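Re: your question from the hallway

Yes, I did run it. Sequences:
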Amino acid sequence: MSYEDVPALVTLMTGDEKHGGAAESTLDVLWVLYDRVLRVDPDAPDDPDRDRFLLSKGHGPMAYYAVLAARGFVPLDALPTFGRYDSILGQHPDRALVPGVELSSGSLGHGLPIALGLAAGLDLEGRAGPRVFCLIGDAELDEGSNHEAIALAGRLGLSRLTVCVMDNRSATHGWPGGIDERFRLEGWTAATIDGRDHDAIEAAFSTDHRGRPHVVVAEVERKG
Amino acid sequence: MSAMRDRFMRVTGALLDERPDLAVVLADIGYGYFQDAGVVARHPRRVLNVGIREQLLVGFAAGLAMEGIRPIVHSYAPFLVERPFEQVKLGFGHQGLGAVFVSVGASYDAAAAGRTHQAPEDVALMSTLPGWHVHVPGHPDEVEAILRSAAGGRRLDYIRLAESVNPEAVPYSSSLTPIRRGSARGVTVIAAGPSLAPVLEATADLDATVLYASTVRPFDADGLRRLLGAPEVVLVEPYLAGTSSAEISAALADSPHRLLALGVARREHRHYGSRQEHDRAHGLDAAGIRRSVTDFLALAA
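Structure:
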């Protein structure tokens, strides 16, 4: 399936329209990650050498499910069951139910601390290949747990860690000075890009950032 | 350092020597000990100090567990259980991951430190989460047995270390252990962890069956039904009063009984001093337990 097919897959999932904007904002980044960046295989979802992708911002996962379906992780016929009692697809993802999902998320501020531990665990295992990607929202950055993690990741120099902040300017009090600067102060490398530009997204996630964690701030239309 | 905590730290150092899949995760508290004991020097990559960041402490440990590392997560009870409780709930049970959590500062062990450093609610809180095995050892030997068992497993274990220690260890069992047998006309007293010593003193001349629990979740309901001496039941827990009342009521649902639950009162107790003074204030010293038990039995007479 191609990128052009994905919006139609999103429309198969109804009942969580209040988070439609959240789904819309992440669509291009998720597509590029799964199409061009992540080393993951739907036929070997537990490969220990796969890249790990954690969707911390679990709200509005319709785009996530659609991309996972387009890439062969989620059965297409599961999409219309979204939110139903026996569905594998809830309004927040559950790693025990959805093939390819690494993190059960929804409550904000949990994914990034877990991503740090996951990256450290891969270091302890001595696995050189796998990278860890974590997607959060600009409003999710309000959660203090993220700032505990941003500080420590910089100190530890977790170079296998890349965070994507989807910036639809929905943080209640904004981020004066810029989101990227918040990370740079803690020792991260940072890039701010157009979150709709597929080549820019691919390039930002392919940056060499040895010795330091990396953040990609993907700007999209303002929420609402 | 308390005897239980000292044993925990020495055994944990030894376990790191033995088991490459273990890691200790700390939020400053305890790191100095592991440094002084040479454990950090031996295992610099597996004693991980995230700084004073308790939400990160738990989330980070969950990430390690995702990669098959067995994390031993250690801090003061309020900072390990209460402050990051949602991380405990979502980072472990909801993700389907295992860990060993070990707390110090049981109930009012830090009596002089005041309420900010006290968490008598910890066992009750952990008991609301599915899948956790909650241990309240009463002796350093029990700490070692429980810790070694927990470290070797894949499940969720919470081990609560206390300053109060029973004079003798009870061989570790996840089941209720009979300590003393009385008649059906007497009283059945269930003592959790360090409560055993004052319970035995309080009931020395009473017709009492005394049962001991160092693992309180899952609660040994079958054992209670099998070992029940008398239908007058007194539960003595060195944490929030009534924490295990529902477990006992469920276990004895088909058996007429009366239950008295003793423990730390649910009130803001604005006093400092020593844990012994707090024991007296909550009626958890031997004299207080005896007074409560005899009053309870007098009501039945």
